[in-house]
TrEMBL record:
<dbReference type="GO" id="GO:0005783">
    <property type="term" value="C:endoplasmic reticulum"/>
</dbReference>
<dbReference type="Pfam" id="PF13899">
    <property type="entry name" value="Thioredoxin_7"/>
</dbReference>
<dbReference type="InterPro" id="IPR036249">
    <property type="entry name" value="Thioredoxin-like_sf"/>
</dbReference>
<feature type="signal peptide">
    <location>
        <begin position="1"/>
        <end position="23"/>
    </location>
</feature>
<dbReference type="GO" id="GO:0002162">
    <property type="term" value="F:dystroglycan binding"/>
</dbReference>
<protein>
    <submittedName>
        <fullName>AGR3 protein</fullName>
    </submittedName>
</protein>
<dbReference type="InterPro" id="IPR051099">
    <property type="entry name" value="AGR/TXD"/>
</dbReference>
<comment type="similarity">
    <text>Belongs to the AGR family.</text>
</comment>
<keyword id="KW-0732">Signal</keyword>
């Protein structure tokens, strides 16, 4: 009888500690405040300057998403962006990522105006890629939720342009 209860207690203890370990592991990952809902698995830089530095250092393009919290178009784009596995994976592995809720002082990031949402690419040579545009002639750098395939193509283009030009 004693052996039986010791065994039961041991199993209970093992179950408890492994659950505790999983809870601690989950807890340990700090909530990603910089993602602002665009993708918690992505490492986000805090400022444009930090993004430029990281892009140059890592030889990865910088992707800048301009958005506002109370903009319904931004919210819709954010949802589509966050739910797209291919975009999330590319953003996580191949890009320096920045999402901004304010304008930068770099006028090159608003070649056709300061609207949101707006997604632009900057390559590691710190050149703003004004040639990588979305589908809309009135707002060149805007994407809509149904444009994720187009955004993926532009992300691939940003990656291709580095290899061919540097």
């Amino acid at each position: 009888m004693m052996l039986h209860s010791t065994l039961a207690l041991s199993l209970l203890l093992i179950a408890f500690t492994s659950n505790l370990a999983m809870a601690i592991k989950k807890e340990k990952r700090a909530p990603q405040t910089l993602s602002r809902g665009w993708g918690d698995e992505i490492t986000w830089v805090q400022t444009y300057e930090e993004g430029l530095y990281q892009a140059k250092k890592s030889n990865k393009p910088l992707m800048v998403i301009h958005h506002l919290e109370d903009c319904q178009y931004c919210q819709a784009l954010k949802k589509a962006f966050a739910e797209n596995e291919e975009i999330q994976e590319m953003a996580q592995n191949n890009f320096i990522m920045l999402n901004l809720m304010h304008e930068t002082t770099d006028k090159n990031l608003s070649p056709d105006g300061q609207y949101v949402p707006r997604i632009m690419f900057v390559d590691p040579s710190l050149t703003v890629r004004a040639d990588i545009t979305g589908r809309y002639s009135n707002r060149l750098y805007t994407y809509e939720p149904q444009d994720m395939i187009f955004l993926i193509e532009n992300m691939k283009k940003a990656l291709r342009l580095i290899q061919t030009e540097l």
